[in-house]
Design goal:
Pfam families: RGS (PF00615). This is RGS domain-containing protein. InterPro entries: RGS, RGS_sf, RGS_subdom1/3, RGS_subdomain_2. It comes from Pristionchus entomophagus. It contains nine helices and no strands. By secondary structure, the protein is mostly helical. α3 packs antiparallel against α4 and α4 packs antiparallel against α5. It is elongated.
Length: about 140
């Protein structure tokens, strides 16, 4: 059984997007919400970047960076994230020699985009309200 976040934790997500994103369950619920809006490419990109930052093997870093690029940056990708031209330029020049930091600016821009755009909708969503309301009631097993 997955460890369910408690009421205070869930409530804290509405106070700060950082708190939501630092919490594994929070990120999972947020991703679920984005999927329901058909906009989960942002969180998938963000999570892929986080994973890339944890990778220590140089060859794997390069391989993962290329996959992330193909999946989320390439204009041919159906999951392309929305980046401004400045950040896109940075990513493109970083791809010459990819490192764990290749997508830092892009990740930051997508974080801000989610914070500004999707996060307020998530906090007002039925999904989030239901999670808050479900506490103190009998939890579904």
């Amino acid at each position: 059984p997955s460890c369910r976040p408690n009421y205070d934790t869930i409530l804290s997500w509405s106070r700060s997007f950082e708190r939501l994103m630092k919490n594994k369950s929070g990120q999972k619920f947020f991703a679920e919400f984005l999927k329901s809006e058909y906009s989960d490419e942002n969180i998938l990109f963000y999570q892929a970047c986080e994973e890339l930052k944890r990778e220590k093997n140089g060859e794997k870093v390069e391989e993962k960076a290329r996959i992330i690029y193909e999946d989320f940056i390439s204009i041919l990708s159906p999951k392309e994230v929305s980046l401004d031209s400045r950040v896109r330029e940075i990513v493109n020049s970083n791809m010459v020699r990819p490192t764990a930091a290749t997508f830092d600016e892009a990740r930051e821009q997508i974080f801000v985009l989610m914070q500004r755009d999707s996060y307020p909708r998530f906090i007002n969503s039925a999904l989030y309200q239901k999670m808050l309301g479900a506490h103190g009631l009998i939890e579904d097993a």
